[in-house]
């Protein structure tokens, strides 16, 4: 393998070791920043041919979410560190690449639909969970860990008064539709309605990454996350070691 094939991965690691990266665009910041990747807060649907097929699984995903506890949040882990008010919780399928066996078994059709998504980060330190916001909840502005992936939200339960700002643009979820955005841009979410909101959240690799870079990041990403964010995640997933 030519060293140049991993040049920007190495550059990103070195910058992270020096204390992080400012990002390539306004409001973009990431602990593990890979230079040279297209920086867009919101990604257009046309870039992802799999979206329509995945969205056709919404009914199955929603049924399994409700069977696993639904908006009541049974078995979910609270996310207090970023919650300005109200309650935000996560019913994990995968966290930092670790499968939560009980929840995965409860949601076989959801997992099957996810496995058909091209370039899903999956067990490579990725995230996949049902994100639940109670009524009158607001998540504070924050940035994600890396720009090496894009974040996807499938709208499941969406009452009026909900929204997501990424960078300088805000949008509203739609049931049965997927958002694709770069969570290394500052983002915040809110549910100003009178009932809960739920989406299925998952990550895919950034389309600009090569297969060689993805292979390298598959190994490195879990280590980066554990080293740079382990204290926060340890608090958030305490008590959920076996799902």
Automatic annotation (TrEMBL):
Domain Aspartyl/asparaginy/proline hydroxylase: 78-207
Pfam families: Asp_Arg_Hydrox
GO cellular component, one term: membrane
GO molecular function annotation: dioxygenase activity
UniProt keywords, alphabetically: Dioxygenase, Oxidoreductase
UniProt key word Nucleus: no
PANTHER family from the UniProt entry: ASPARTATE BETA-HYDROXYLASE DOMAIN CONTAINING 2 (PTHR46332:SF5), ASPARTATE BETA-HYDROXYLASE DOMAIN-CONTAINING PROTEIN 2 (PTHR46332)
Family stated for the protein in its record: Belongs to the aspartyl/asparaginyl beta-hydroxylase family.
Name the UniProt record assigns to this protein: Aspartyl/asparaginyl beta-hydroxylase domain-containing protein
Lineage: Bacteria, Bacillati, Actinomycetota, Actinomycetes, Pseudonocardiales
